[in-house]
Request: fold
Amino acid sequence: MAAEHLIAIVDDDRSARESATDLVRSMGFATRAFVSGEEFLKMGSVRGTSCLVADMQMPGLSGLALRKQLAASGHLIPTILMTAYPNDRDREEAARIGVICYLAKPFDDLDLFTCVQLAIASREKG
Reply:
């Protein structure tokens, strides 16, 4: 069931954060939104998160840095990174560290839905 999975949305841009949160909720998932990677870590949501959707470019921890920090601490949360400034170097680094999807903004709703489904499936495989 989708509602049993918590999808964390981390984006410093309020409009993008709210849009992604609304979209993921419309897919039937529970969501929690954060303005920064630091807030996500501080709020104690790491253990309950089934999928992380994070912006690549934020003050403080970028989405890529957040993914690396989580992995280094043993929390391999399936991660989707989104960016308004896609580039091959970041895409390759994201793939290297196990990011499920790397989405260029603006992205199609179906693309995010597919990525969330892939992330949930990878989480359930263990």
Remarks:
- The longest helix spans residues 109-125.
